[in-house]
Design a protein that fits this description.
- The complex is a heterodimer.
- By secondary structure, chain A is an alpha+beta fold.
- Chain A is built from 2 helices and 7 strands.
- Helices cover about 15% and strands about 25% of the residues of chain A.
- In chain A, strands 4-5-1-6 form a 4-stranded antiparallel β-sheet. In chain A, strands 2-3 form a two-stranded antiparallel sheet.
- In chain A, strand 4 and strand 5 form a beta hairpin.
- In chain B, helix 2 packs across helix 3 and helix 3 packs antiparallel against helix 5.
- Chain B is globular, with a radius of gyration of 19 Å.
- In chain B, the strands form 5 sheets. In chain B, strands 1, 3, 4, 6, 11, 12, 13 and 17 form an 8-stranded antiparallel β-sheet that branches. In chain B, strands 2-5-14 form a 3-stranded antiparallel β-sheet, with no helix packed on it. Chain B has a two-stranded antiparallel ribbon with strand order 7-8.
- Chain B contains 5 helices and 17 strands.
- Classes of the chains: A alpha+beta, B alpha+beta.
- At the A-B interface, strand 3, strand 5, helix 2 and strand 7 of A face strand 2, strand 9, strand 10 and strand 16 of B.
- Strand 7 of chain A pairs parallel with strand 10 of chain B, so a sheet runs across the interface.
């Protein structure tokens, strides 16, 4: 599957798969004015570096046009841990 | 705004016309009778490529006046003097929605896949969040409040990517310490996180509402000195029994921002739409919170983004 085959209504179900090198290339870089890439690890084991489909679709920075061709994979969210309740005031 | 135009503007730093309290000389939204700060914000939107409608112009002007205590919905409280950040999220892209109302020469940044529409800046539940403030920008450790308006209701199911979270950080201890307060709604409970632990806020009015609307935290004095640190969710006040202290640790990536929760080594992101955000001095009573909420709700209604 690639970006052009995705409906906008399905954007939240999929993400773009990055290699570790591609992740390093995107950190701290803008894909549009006032908009920065934010690669994160997904919930797979082992985890994958991914960016959102929105970043791929809305990228207008010509230096990163290649993100539009990233492989599309289903989004697996990391499991948030239950908080440890305390009365401490450290 | 195109990428090429953005790069030209960024390189020339030609943004001086949006200094606070002035009106741009190159036209813009008009409205010669507007509050000067409201007009500067309208002009900045125009310069960023967004044409403010007449209804939006009236809504913006009324809300700026309301924040100053001279508007149609508030003639009592001054929330403008202590303002740190005002984000009305008007426009259709990040460059427009990021413009700061209190200082239109500045704009916040967004990260990940935020989307921008008439209801505000909407998270994707995957990796999107945005700047809100730097810890050293808060005016006073025990006199600050942080507010947001959610333009959509909280999802009632779907733990995977429909989390309802906002992150608030508040400074403590002058310049030495910064506590990390991440208010988490996902468990239908409210916590303030610090380190690996979480303090729970309580209310005798039940669980956190699932509807969107006006949410915030307010600290107006230490508990020991008769003050409080409260959370408000659509008018319901949540309290905590102690003064939470914690140390802001940049190494743990506890970055002040909205729509992100950082707990331990795990990040989670909101899928909410943020229609409004404000940081100002502390709100000390439920009466004052109700007055501020009425002003923000009037603003959201005028922009057709009320829940």
């Amino acid at each position: 599957m690639n970006l052009t085959e995705l409906k906008a209504s399905d954007y939240d179900k999929y993400v773009g798969l990055l290699t570790p090198i591609q992740k390093d290339q995107l950190v701290g870089r803008q894909y549009a004015p006032n908009s920065y890439f934010n690669p994160v690890l997904d919930g797979n084991q082992p985890p994958n570096w991914i960016i959102s489909v929105e970043e791929m679709a809305n990228c207008i920075n010509p230096d990163f046009e290649w993100v539009k061709a990233l492989p599309i994979i289903p989004w697996v969210a990391p499991a948030p841990p239950e908080p440890i309740e305390t009365d401490a005031t450290d | 705004m195109s990428w090429a135009k953005y790069k030209r503007l960024s390189s020339s730093k030609d943004l001086s016309i949006f200094r606070r309290g002035t009106t741009a000389s190159d036209g813009g939204g008009g409205g010669g009778g507007n509050d000067p700060d409201a007009q500067a914000y309208i002009d900045a939107l125009d310069a960023a490529g967004y044409t403010v409608s007449g209804a939006e112009e009236t809504a913006i002007n009324n809300h700026f006046l309301d924040l100053k205590g001279t508007g149609p919905n508030n003639s009592t409280y001054d929330w403008w003097t202590g303002i740190v950040r005002l984000l009305p999220f008007i426009g259709t892209n990040a460059a427009q929605q990021g413009i700061e109302g209190q200082n239109p020469a500045s704009a916040i940044n967004f990260y990940g896949g935020m989307t921008f529409s008439s209801i505000g800046a909407e998270g994707n539940g995957t990796n999107a969040y945005f700047d809100f403030f730097r810890p050293d920008e808060l005016p006073d450790d025990y006199n600050n409040s942080i507010w947001v308006y959610s333009s959509i209701d909280r999802p009632t199911s779907g733990f995977q990517n429909k989390l309802y979270k906002a992150l608030f950080d508040q400074s403590l201890g002058g310049v030495r310490y910064f506590a990390n307060y991440e208010i988490d709604f996902v468990f239908d409970r409210m916590y303030s996180y610090h380190g690996d632990y979480a303090n729970r806020f309580t209310s005798n009015l039940g669980q956190v509402p699932t509807t969107g609307g006006f949410f915030g935290t307010s600290r107006y004095n230490s508990k020991a000195n008769g003050g409080g640190f409260n959370i408000y969710a659509n008018g319901v006040q949540y309290t905590i029994s102690n003064d939470i202290l914690g140390v802001y640790n940049a190494n743990t990536q506890h970055t002040p921002g909205l729509a992100q929760l950082q707990y331990g080594n795990v990040s989670s992101f909101s899928s909410l739409a943020f229609g409004y955000a404000l940081i100002t001095t502390g709100v000390s009573t439920t009466t004052e919170e109700a007055a501020l909420r009425a002003c923000v709700e009037a603003f959201m209604t005028a922009l057709s983004r009320n829940v």
